[in-house]
Amino acid sequence: MTTRIHEILKKYSSELLTEWLAAIVTSGVRRDALMKEAELREQCSEFLRLLIQATESGNLTDITTSGYAGVREMLDRLSRSRSLQGFSPSETAIFIFSLKQPLFDRLRRELAEQPQSVVDEMWSATSLLDKLGLYTTEVHQRTREEVIVRQQQEMMELSTPVVQLWDRIVCLPLIGTLDSGRTQTVMETLLQRIVETGAEIAIIDITGVPTVDTLTAQHLIKTVTATRLMGAECVISGIRPQIAQTIVHLGVDLAGVVTKSSVAGAFNWALKRLSQSVTSSGARNAVGKV
Amino acid sequence: MERIPILRMGKVLLVTIQVDMHDQLAVTLQDDLTSKIVETGARGVLIDISSLEVVDSFIGRILGNIANMSRVLDAQTVVVGMQPAVAITLVELGMSLPGIRTALNVEKGMALLQASMEADEAELEVPDASLED
Predict the structure, then answer these.
(1) Rounded distance, CA A44 to CA A22, Å?
(2) Cβ–Cβ under 8 Å, residues A190 and A204
(3) Between B14 and which of A41, A65, A196, B7 could a Cys-Cys bridge form, CB atoms 3.0 to 4.6 Å apart?
(4) Residue A169: helix, strand or coil by DSSP?
(5) In 3-state terms, what secondary structure has residue B22?
(6) Which residues of chain B make contact with A191, given a CB cutoff of 8 A?
(7) Which has the closest alpha carbon to A180: A217, A143, A209?
(8) Which of B64, B76, B13 is nearest to A229 (CA)?
(9) What is the pLDDT at residue B96?
(10) Looking at residue A279, what DSSP letter applies?
(11) Interface test with A, best of B91, B92, B113 (most A CBs within 10 A)
(12) What is the pLDDT of residues A155-201, one digit of tens each?
């Protein structure tokens, strides 16, 4: 069974395409900076072609059926690429919704003699296009969420760079807020790098950490202890005045932990500990002060 | 009965744990090691636990006991090669093993023992030297 909508789509596909493109332009959604006109035309004609195929069976209500697989796959692709290009969800949905006007015009003209069926056909057409439009929004949102999850993971990995400062000395500059998930990663990465590099001294620099609560302080102490158990030594540097006050007020015991005010101080301590020194090439006898 | 071998290298006793430690094995090692220290007059004990994947609180405590016992018997203990996961577990269990000296690997552990044994001997020699003067 074929519907009038299918017939109209089939019969006037080229006219609909032209009018649709015009409607997209007037709705102000076409963004020349992000997308070429030829590309848009290509997408519109592909969508029309697939929609004609899908509506052939007469199904205008359920877009989850296999008949709509092609349309869904195409919208998936379109929505994903638009999401990555920086289109907003409504801009993507309007791409579908703007087909309504040209389609309704055609319906009205074709069914001028049967006003009652015009309303029926319009209703089924509008609900179909609404569903498809919402589908693009959903995919759009899902794509965004995937991006956010990926970025979170990447930030987690990026946030613990263990750098080798010197032979047998590694440094871990921490930046940002430390939550328990991150401190766990920090501990694991640091210990793993100590095994890999054979470092004897690890400097944890918390200059970039704005606040320290009891839990974070406890984690830091645990990290220091674990480092010691593995046979390396740990020094914490860059504790800000406010953090020092917080630590003392909270009653956290940092007695067994070596602390220095700056990375430079910690590095100097580490060099001394390893009985190494830096000399400037100009004055051979002068020990480089860091 | 299963035992962990104890090797003698000069003044150092070398223990390499290569099987999963169960409680009885740990107690046997503690007994064997203490008697061996007295028997050989060893000055240092090096315990390599790099193949240990799991350490529970009991094994942790035995390690601490071994270190304390050998100190009483005038030998220093160094535990080497602790895996990151093991270190994290012990810390989470609240066992920081304060009496134990540690090193990253056997080589560094040996150097540490050697250095502290030399320091001990130097300490003993100092009064003699001052007498000669």
Answers:
(1) 11
(2) yes
(3) B7
(4) strand
(5) coil
(6) 84, 87-88
(7) A217
(8) B64
(9) 84
(10) B
(11) B91
(12) 877 777 889 999 999 999 988 887 777 888 888 899 999 999 999 99
Sheet of A163-166: strands edge to edge?
Answer: A163-166, A169-175, A201-208, A233-237, A258-260
**With 80 as the cut, is the pLDDT of residue B133 above it?**
no
Flag whether residue A228 sits within 8 Å of chain B, measured between CB atoms. yes
pLDDT tens digit sequence for B64-121: 999 999 999 999 999 999 999 999 999 988 888 887 899 999 999 999 999 988 888 8
- Report whether A191 contacts A231 (CB < 8 A): no
Q: What is the pLDDT of residues A44-94, one digit of tens each?
A: 888 888 888 888 887 778 888 888 888 888 888 888 888 888 888 888 888
Q: Is A200 on the interface with B (CB under 8 A)?
A: yes
Q: Which residues contact A163 (CB under 8 A, 6 or more apart)?
A: A170, A171, A172, A173
**Can you tell me the ipTM of this complex?**
0.78
Query: What is the reported pTM?
Result: 0.64
CA distances from B108 to B48, B73, B104, B121 (A): 11, 23, 6, 20
Beta bridge partners of B119: none
Helix axes A4-11, A37-55, angle to 10 degrees: 140
User: Is B88's CB within 8 Å of A188's CB?
Assistant: yes
